[in-house]
């Protein structure tokens, strides 16, 4: 195996991915497995480069001195003294007029080349993807630095090309053999300039999250235990923390009919997903530059599901069957998610390297199994992660809430549901419908772009979301709460405020990511980054760094308030959600600092508060 060529801390010239430009970088580390150097640019951006994309600084200095020592005119004149390509075989001399015309043409060609070179360099430096171009749109001062390394390097690269082109055009090569050589030389030079974009090869995950191997191993057991504990507590007459519920018999937790109903639900949603309705959009570029296509028809699937539920209710199907077998449905969903996770990990072992998840490629079985080894597992055009993200769990959440509403009416002999139950169902229905209506926005989230599809997302989508997020409605069935209309109005106002912050912030972010040049977004200011993306510093994103998280937490509180203040159990959701979003915010901070470098530090100085203004 060949050893490494550049040492840690060495200052070299690294090629920017997708271009022919080299910049001064510093080597920070080397991956012996992938044979990639991690280099740091002057703006703080860190990238992984191949050894072939790195050059020593002495190579550029030597190239510069070599080109300056021999001017184009000297090289052409020495060649003319040895043998003129235009001279005939018999050695006849040119006439004086032909010589003068030849000199005039030669002088004109040199002048045109000398004029074209600065113009070309000026255009390349002007349109180079740097920070100054974006600052021009933000009204920020441009950089006054004149010594641009990329322009110097590009000049060194273009000068030999221009010289060869001038020499080939200056003389008329009559020999067919020489003509063929001319075409080959021009083709080689053209191929040299048209460099293909560098494909980013995924590296091993070095920084482990969620407590590493030990933490993820414990979470595999802790998450299902938490779900079952919460559901058992809601069945208690006194659901206080000190009143631990008795464990049910194992045979009572499983019923084949319930598992069959769950499978029927899952595959029904899969059929709705495959229907050729709704538009097809492209996701964000992957590490290899490819874009996957997604069919946006989640809202249509919701309408079809609502129609199917309406038909069942019309034929007097008792939907409160879900309430009576709620624990068994949770066990069935957990068993299915575990089987799905095993399948996902086994198939990921045969997946190409570029299709693995950035955060789930550690080489440790437990960690990769939990976080997800493959980024976008697909069966044909059926995207498993994208399907599970919104369909079975999220729509199932609404169906479970409706079942709890009907169960409350039956158990307590009510002609209409309680005001608390109506508020909980209405608030959460709005949240789900909004997510399905804005389904395309999920393509820019961390779950789709960064996290693999493993036990964490499979269990979260199929078990945690429908059975924990419906905890308030499940709690109200066994513990009815009466609230006043003024209190209900205050809760409704709080939910509307949270929803407005959540929706408007997400809309700003998604529209800006999709089309930063949209005239409707001309009033938004942003900080440019070396990746070509901008960091918004106006609107909601200039208020706190994660305003969508703030709106989410406000809505979560509004969902819990209709349950009263007798027990803390219905407030588990808002407590958990705060912990979840604070942890996710920390992951975002770490990821963005590595990705954007100094631009992210400038953004943090501009927007100091993370989620809660003036608090955190």
Automatic annotation (TrEMBL):
CDD domains: Tudor_LBR
Pathway recorded for this protein: Steroid biosynthesis; cholesterol biosynthesis
Reaction(s) catalysed by this chain's protein: 4,4-dimethyl-5alpha-cholesta-8,24-dien-3beta-ol + NADP(+) = 4,4-dimethyl-5alpha-cholesta-8,14,24-trien-3beta-ol + NADPH + H(+); 4,4-dimethyl-8,14-cholestadien-3beta-ol + NADPH + H(+) = 4,4-dimethyl-5alpha-cholest-8-en-3beta-ol + NADP(+); 5alpha-cholest-8,14-dien-3beta-ol + NADPH + H(+) = 5alpha-cholest-8-en-3beta-ol + NADP(+)
Biased amino acid composition, Low complexity: 66-75
Organism: Regulus satrapa (Golden-crowned kinglet)
Domain Tudor: 4-62
Compositionally skewed regions (Basic residues) per UniProt: 76-95
Record's protein name: Delta(14)-sterol reductase LBR
Phylogenetic classification of the source organism: Eukaryota, Metazoa, Chordata, Craniata, Vertebrata
GO molecular function: Delta14-sterol reductase activity; DNA binding
């Amino acid at each position: 195996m060949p050893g490494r060529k550049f040492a840690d801390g060495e200052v070299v010239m690294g090629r920017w991915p997708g271009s022919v430009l080299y910049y001064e970088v510093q080597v920070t580390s080397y991956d012996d497995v992938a044979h990639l150097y991690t280099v740091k640019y002057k703006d703080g951006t860190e990238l992984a480069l191949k050894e072939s994309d790195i050059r020593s600084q002495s190579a550029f200095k030597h190239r510069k001195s070599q080109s300056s020592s021999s001017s184009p005119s000297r090289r052409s004149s020495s060649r003319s003294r040895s043998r003129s390509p235009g001279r005939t075989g018999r050695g006849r001399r040119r006439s004086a007029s032909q010589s003068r015309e030849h000199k005039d043409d030669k002088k004109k060609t040199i002048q045109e080349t000398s004029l074209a070179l600065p113009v070309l360099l000026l255009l390349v430096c002007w349109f180079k993807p740097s920070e100054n171009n974006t600052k021009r749109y933000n009204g920020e001062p441009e950089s006054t630095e004149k010594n641009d390394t990329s322009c110097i390097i590009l000049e060194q690269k273009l000068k030999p090309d221009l010289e060869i082109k001038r020499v080939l055009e200056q003389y008329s090569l009559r020999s067919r053999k020489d003509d063929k050589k001319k075409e080959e030389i021009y083709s080689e030079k053209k191929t040299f300039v048209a460099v293909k974009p560098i494909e980013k090869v995924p590296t091993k995950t070095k920084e482990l999250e969620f407590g590493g191997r030990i933490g993820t191993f414990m979470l595999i057991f802790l998450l299902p235990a938490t779900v079952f504990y919460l559901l058992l507590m809601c069945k208690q007459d006194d659901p206080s923390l000190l009143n631990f519920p008795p464990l049910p018999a194992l045979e009572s937790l499983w019923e084949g009919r319930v598992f069959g109903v769950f499978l029927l639900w899952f595959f029904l949603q899969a059929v709705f997903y495959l229907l050729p309705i709704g538009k097809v959009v492209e996701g964000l570029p992957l590490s290899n530059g490819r874009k996957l296509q997604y069919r946006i028809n989640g809202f249509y699937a919701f309408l079809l599901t609502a129609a199917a539920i309406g038909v069942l209710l019309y034929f007097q199907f008792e939907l409160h069957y879900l309430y009576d077998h709620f624990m068994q449905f949770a066990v069935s969903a957990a068993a299915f998610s575990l089987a799905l996770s095993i399948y996902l990990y086994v198939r990921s072992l045969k997946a190409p390297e570029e299709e693995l998840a950035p955060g789930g490629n550690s080489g440790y079985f437990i960690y990769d199994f939990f976080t997800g080894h493959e980024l976008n597992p697909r069966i044909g055009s059926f995207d498993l992660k994208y399907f599970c993200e919104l369909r079975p769990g999220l729509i199932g959440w609404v169906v479970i809430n409706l079942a709890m509403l009907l169960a409350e009416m039956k158990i307590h002999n009510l002609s209409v549901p309680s005001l608390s139950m109506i508020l909980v169902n209405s608030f959460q229905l709005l949240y789900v419908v909004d997510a399905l209506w804005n389904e395309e926005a999920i393509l820019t989230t961390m779950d789709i772009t960064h996290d693999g599809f493993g036990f964490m997302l499979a269990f979260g989508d199929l078990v945690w979301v429908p059975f924990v997020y419906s905890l308030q409605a499940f709690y109200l069935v066994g513990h009815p709460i009466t609230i006043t209309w003024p209190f209900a109005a205050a809760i409704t106002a709080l939910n509307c405020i949270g929803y407005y912050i959540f929706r408007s912030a997400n809309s700003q972010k998604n529209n800006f990511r999709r089309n930063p040049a949209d005239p409707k977004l001309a009033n938004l200011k942003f900080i440019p980054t070396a990746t070509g993306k901008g960091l918004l510093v106006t609107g909601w994103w200039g208020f706190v760094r994660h305003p969508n998280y703030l709106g989410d937490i406000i809505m979560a509180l509004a969902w819990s308030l209709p349950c009263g203040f007798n027990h803390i159990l219905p407030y588990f959701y808002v407590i958990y959600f705060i912990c979840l979003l604070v942890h996710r915010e920390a992951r975002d901070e770490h990821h963005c600092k590595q990705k954007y470098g100094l631009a992210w530090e400038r953004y943090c100085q501009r927007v100091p508060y993370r989620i809660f203004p003036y608090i955190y």
